[in-house]
Known about the structure:
Layout: E1 26-32, H1 35-40, H2 43-57, E2 62-70, H3 80-91, E3 98-101, H4 104-107, H5 112-124, E4 128-131, H6 141-174, E5 186-189, E6 204-207, H7 209-222, H8 228-237, H9 244-251, E7 259-260, E8 271-272, H10 281-293, E9 313-315, E10 323-327, E11 332-336, E12 344-346, H11 358-369, H12 376-420, H13 426-449, H14 457-468, H15 471-477, H16 480-490, E13 495-498, E14 503-505
Parallel strand pairs: 1-2, 1-3, 3-4, 9-13
Antiparallel strand pairs: 5-6, 7-8, 10-11, 11-12, 13-14
Amino acid sequence: MIKNSINSFNTFIKKKEQKERQVKDVLLYTRVSSKNQAENNSSLETQGKGAREFCVKHNYPISYTFGGTYESAKGDFSREEFGKLIEYATNKNPKPFGIVVWIISRFSRSGASSINIVRELVEIHGIHLIEASSGLDTTTERGYLTICEKLLESRKENLVRKEIIVPGMINFLSKGYIFGRSPFGYDHYGPRVKNGNFLSPTQKIVINFQGELLREAFQYKLTGHYSDVGIVDILRKRGLKISEQRISAAWRNPFYCGVLINSLLKDCKAIYGNWEPLISENEFWKLQDLLQAGTSKFTHKKVADYKPLNRLIKCYSCGIYLVGYLVKKKNLGYYKCRNCNGVSINCETKPRSLKNGAHDLFKELLCSYQINPKVTNLLKIQLKKVYEYYNLEGARKEKDLNRSLAELTQKLLNLKKRYGLEEINKDVYEITKLELESKILALQVELNKISPEISNLEKLIEKSVVGLQNISKIWCSVGIEDKQNLQLTLFPDGIYYNAENHTYLT
């Protein structure tokens, strides 16, 4: 080689050696945005099939697959499967060659955030992003740039969808309609339902058989005398199987008092929905107070039949409730104070017992509250006066409510006539109509609460007096739930057991 030629200086150039990877193993990621897409179309299957065919064609062995479920792409690490993908890829040693997705929007729609993730994958970890549908990847500068542009475009598509779709969703909700399935106890009619029997041009939410039983369940719970377990058992006997968790959620769902809540609504404010409620608003708030205060007097654990006085008897010395226990070896139940030594009493009276058991002692207490036959006539006179008073008050209230209801119904009719004659615009009509209908509904609920006039008063009083003369016998003959209802009616604050004198105090 001639020393003085320009090519002689080529020997001083340090050439960059690039090692070609022998095995280009990749990770596969698929996803859809919603549960409906996951269940009702074959997008996940299409993505997986297309990506696998691409990997076979380009000799990319798939070492692991992620996704295969529904996850919204507007947030990246809020997606569980996506988080697992990135964590696995960046922690694996040696690193995978790349991550394969069918189209870039399946990887992310977060825009700048996703571009930063790709930058770290490529520049820090040497892991490439590959789009199987187009063959684009980040191994070249041009491919890298194009993929970043596609990630931005995916973000833009999301924004456009939001600007177009969300206002329509808000408008739909503001009319009192709901998205998705209706809660337990209602049938959902509409244009986009799976069951052909419920197809309808407009949405209708209708109470079904389960809902009617659930309506009764609400009334049981509102008394404050029934546990969730007891109500579930009552419903089961009536043919409705429902879990304690599900019925507990129902107590706290405003839907059942006719109220729609959704974060998309203007200012996140609740509105009235287009369906018949199971309970009134007043009843709903009364129930929330009961749940918060724990005034149902019951725990949610089923009370065993051998200890009906649980959560009724308190220790006279320290004031805490005696707890029922069962000694399995002897099959002997007893109540015991957890704080005070020696404060214990057998549930039942045994042949060798020197003292009566807790239940016999309680029967003696009930006997002391029974009506003396000598005063039954006086009691009947007094009961008759009480019932007549409440019948009279109920009749007056019913008359006032019916008068108000008739006035509001006439106003609603006049409003419809004025709207039909174009004397008022649609906005005024809709607002006024909603207000009048809300007032009418409230009056109807109040009317339903009024007890009907007792027609067979003499017979009812006679039956009541017989019951008051046999309280202890009634307590012995009924089941655990009714025993506790009777106990709470007579002794709402419980009773105290004085161990020293072996007696109950109120």
